[in-house]
Amino acid sequence: MLQSCNDESFIEEGSADLDFSLDTLRFDTVFTELGSATRFFKVFNPHDQSIRISNLRLESGAQSFFRLNVDGVGGNDYQDVEILAKDSLWVFVEVTIDPDNPLSASPFIIEDKVLFSTNGNEQVVYLEAFGQNANYFPNRFFGGNDTLFTCNFDSIIFDDPKPYVFYGIIVVDRCTWVFPEGTQIYVHGGVGNNEDTGIYNDGLIVFLEEGRLKSRGTLNNPVIIQGDRLEEPFGEIAGQWGGIRFFNESYDNEINHTTIKNSIVGVRVDSSAFLQISNSRIMNTSSSGIIGVHGNITAQNTLVHSNGGNGVQLAWGGNYEFDYCTVASYGNQSEALRANNYLCTDPLCLGELLINRFEGRFSNCIFTGSGSDEILLEDGTFGNNPGVFDYNFNNCVVRVDEFLDTELFSNFFQFCDECYNVQFGDAVFLDTDESDYHLDTLSVAENKALPSLDFPLDIEENLRDANMPDAGCYEYQY
Question: Do the Cβ atoms of 335 and 375 come closer than 8 Å?
Answer without folding.
Answer: yes
